[in-house]
Specification:
The chain is mainly beta. Helix content is about 10%, strand content about 50%. It has one domain: SH3 type barrels (Roll), CATH 2.30.30. A five-stranded antiparallel sheet has the order 4-3-2-1-5.
């Protein structure tokens, strides 16, 4: 088992993660909360929607801190 898969298996659901995975012609990242895990892969709730990622496509994965709080408007 590669290290990225070990990380994904150990993290509790709801953890904010970044997962780099293969796509046609290269690789891309999914950043969001880990929402599901089964025998075939994981799901990450990204800003653009739910991303299903097969374990065979995972290259890297790690937990990340929560996003910073929104800044106050410059001109109230």
């Amino acid at each position: 088992m590669n290290r990225a898969l070990e990380v994904l298996a150990a993290l509790p659901l709801g953890t904010r993660v970044v997962v780099r995975y293969r796509i046609d012609g290269g690789a891309t990242d999914a950043l969001g909360n880990l929402t599901a895990r089964d025998a075939l892969g994981v799901s990450v709730a990204a800003r653009t929607g739910e991303v299903a990622i097969a374990y065979d496509d995972v290259l890297l994965a790690k937990p990340v801190p929560p996003p910073p709080p929104r800044r106050a408007p410059r001109f109230p």
